[in-house]
Structure prediction request, 374 residues.
Amino acid sequence: MTDLSTVGPPLGLQTTSADMSPEQRCSIGVRNIELLCDLDWRGRLLLGAELSRMKWSGDFTRDDVWRPDEKARGWDEWLKRRDFRLGGEKTMAKESVNALIMWSVLYANFTAVNEQRSERGLLPLPLPTSVSQLRPYASMMRRVDDWQQPELQQAGNDTSIEMAPPFAESQPEVLAAWQAAWENIPPDRRDRKGQARPPTETESSDYLRKTEGLKQLKAREDREIEAAKKDALTVGEKPADPVKQAAAAATSGTKAKAKSAPKQSAEELEAEKRQYQIQQDVQSYRLKLNNLQQSAESLDAFLRNTLAREGSESYLRELRQQDMGIFSVSDDIKKLRDAVVVCQSVYKLITEPYVAPQPISRREVDPSTATIDL
Prediction:
């Protein structure tokens, strides 16, 4: 996380300390937020950090927007009264504020993951470029479990606030979902002006809804099976009394209970689950086939156009000599050869009878001499 104290003087930001009163820290925080609202997207990182500090320190409760007799001082109400505006135009909704705070937490996660990807020769994940792109991931954010709300009994004002704990520093689930959503975008639509573009709010929402489908079906299956077990056998309960049942049925004015939906059998649930899985696999298979074809056609078109423009294959040798880190193409021939090997393996899988690999017993393998045929 960027330290505000290191960028404060150039941007005109002021820093706070524990020696200050809550009222002083709140006043400084409000001025910093108003200043950061006028900066570009990179300034949103600092804006999220300042909003986070104001929220979980409880300093916002000492603002002069509150009347002295107001005891319940909520975060959402404070934002509404302050009416901060991004770029001086658009009022920040609470969802946008939450996304800004998420961004201030996730930036360090993106940096760490992209450093690891660079070490493995992989392209970096695209960073978010707007607040809306992070909204679909809000429910996935981890929160700390050892947080205690700040003491707010200063100045004789017993202020009460209730809020969820702060976000945790590490957010692996969000980064994994972001990467999966980005990789789910067709290759020809992942770039914008030569740069990897992040998934839009709609693309992320659609992908997350798709991946949640099987989870919800499995949860419903578990609930149905558990309910069936309870209906089939009860332990330690008294049997129904026919006399009481008849009396209850004869009671006038009794409203008939709505009939519950018929429960599905385990076989029906399994069949529905399998049908859903088949549909998802067909969609994924088709998408991956399209991605493969589009990637190959895009590479072919790029090479043909480049060679036609330059007039000689010596230009490709010049490209190989450029040292551009993870974007270097010095190993292009090896990568193409590896891709051909993978494609041949895929073709073999879908055109020849499948033979399951034989299980390997640990007792039959000597790790020092074992080899694997590729």
